[in-house]
Design brief:
about 290 residues, alpha/beta, Rossmann fold, 2 domains, six-stranded parallel sheet, 13 strands, about 35% helix, about 25% strand, globular
Length: about 290
């Protein structure tokens, strides 16, 4: 209320969504929430209807790519940008200039690889929660273990390692950016592969103990009983993606471990995504 705008950059699972809902509840007037994916839009509607249903009519939830005529003629009292690391993009930065009294940015990973990282804070507001170690100490939360498995340069080696690590009785997400490899994993382990063409994604996740996911599941998805993440394929050296993926476990009350499978060449080229985890306080155990 003092600054008119903040960026909440606490760890995933810290309650940034509840901060947003609290503000939507106590600040009188029209509110807008912008999100990067349709899946997150569905999840926000669920949050609002479960926690502040009496405010539902006051809150508009849009994707960043929504047609501007949906929001440009509305005076909002509060605008929240979920996963605000997307905001500095050419096509989205205009949203930072819509009419609003208060502004809130939300992200556990305010990183970009295109030189526009400073704009994440500039377009949202005063940064709070950047120091994860301090937050974890104050709240008594524990970091889940992260294991980096370095394999030879072949997809067969990665698939063998997935088979070795996967326990079908544990609720698990297998992340794979490559669509063809993701579908191959789905066939090999007889599990659904969730990607851009998948409908009712949240329902598919809830109905299956093990799922494979493309990057559509990187941000925002909250599964309270998730036990393990196995990461097979990824977006090059993206620190933002790496923090978001391990963040799915930080939403969970049953988190056990995050396993990352990389070839020797990938470690050399894209190792900075792993070091981003170390910067936040995680301990990485390397298996060669």
């Amino acid at each position: 209320m003092r600054t008119g705008a903040i960026g909440a950059f606490h760890p995933t699972g810290a309650g940034k969504s509840f901060l947003t809902m609290y503000l939507c509840d106590v600040i009188v007037g029209r509110k807008a929430i912008f999100v990067p994916t349709v899946t997150l839009k569905e999840q926000w509607h669920e949050y609002i209807n479960q926690n502040i249903p009496e405010r539902a009519r006051e809150i508009d939830v849009f994707t960043y790519s929504a047609n501007r005529r949906n929001w440009e003629n509305t005076d909002y009292v509060l605008t929240a940008f979920d996963e605000c690391q997307y905001l500095p993009a050419d096509t989205f930065s205009r949203l930072a200039f819509l009419k609003t009294k208060y502004r809130l940015g939300l992200s556990a990973s305010p990183h970009r690889e295109d030189g526009r990282e400073p704009y994440v804070i500039a377009l949202t507001g005063f940064p709070v929660g950047l120091n994860w170690q301090e937050y974890m100490q104050e709240t008594g939360r524990l970091y889940h273990p992260i294991h980096l498995h370095v394999v030879r340069s072949s997809r067969e080696a990665k698939l063998r390692k997935v088979r070795e690590l996967l326990n079908p009785s544990k609720r698990t997400m297998i992340f794979c950016d490559g669509i063809e490899l993701g579908k191959e994993i789905g066939r090999a382990f007889r599990i659904p592969y969730i990607h851009g063409e998948t409908t009712d994604r949240l329902t598919v996740i809830r109905d299956n103990p093990v799922v494979a996911m493309s990057r559509v599941g990187d941000v925002g998805v909250s599964v309270k009983d998730l036990e393990q993440i196995i990461e097979v394929d990824f977006l090059y050296g993206s620190r933002q993606q790496q923090l978001q993926r391990t963040g799915r476990l930080m939403h969970s009350e049953e988190a056990e471990r995050h396993d990352i499978i990389m070839t020797e060449q990938e470690v050399k080229l894209y190792g900075k995504r792993i070091w981003a985890l170390q910067e936040k306080g995680f301990t990485i155990k390397i298996h060669e």
